Amino acid sequence: MKNIYIVGFMGTGKTVVGRALSRRLKVEFVDLDARIEEKEKETIACIFKSKGEEHFRRVEKEALSEAVANDRSVISCGGGVVLDPANISAMKKTGICVCLSASAEEILRRIGVTTHRPLLHGPNPLEKIQSLLSSRDPCYRQADILIDTTNLSVEEIVALILEKLPPAIISKK
Q1: Is residue 173, in this structure, part of any structural domain at all?
Q2: How far apart are CA 88 and CA 116, in angstroms?
Q3: What CATH number does residue 56 fall under?
Q4: What is the dihedral of CA 64, 65, 69, 72, to 10 degrees?
Q5: Digits of tens for pLDDT over the chain (173 positions)?
Q6: How far is CA 109 from the centre of its chain?
Q7: Domain for residue 91, yes or no?
């Protein structure tokens, strides 16, 4: 099996779906954001605040480079990993990309108004979500499989992914 990369905007279910999918396939689960926080010894929000988005994207790219060396893993990526074409290329060369999406309203409902989402700081988080979704849409659309999670359970999302995966991806070779 090649790697399965779960990409998409924050709040679309990447981590919870990635964990459930890895359990179902009996393979390793890798959470890139968790790896970054472990390596940097601070939260993503703190990294953004103290070192900036450019530093975060550089560390994110390094974490992805390490993860693509895996085989037979489900890898949950940060929402902005697709902003770098080299990241998309690396994922497609070593596996398949599954993009999870949801409506802006559903994303806001799921994540709420939180302080640990650095890109959503400001007076109108819904407007910020809509703007970021719009600007990132062309990057997300490069994924091999697109799934709108707005009205689906985790189990339904996993079933859809498994249904849409090419058999060669999940074979034990």
Answers
A1: no
A2: 26
A3: 3.40.50.300
A4: 20
A5: 689 999 999 899 999 999 999 999 999 999 999 999 999 999 888 888 899 889 999 999 999 999 998 888 999 998 889 999 999 999 999 999 999 999 999 998 888 765 555 556 667 888 888 999 999 999 999 999 999 999 999 999 999 999 999 887 766 65
A6: 18
A7: yes
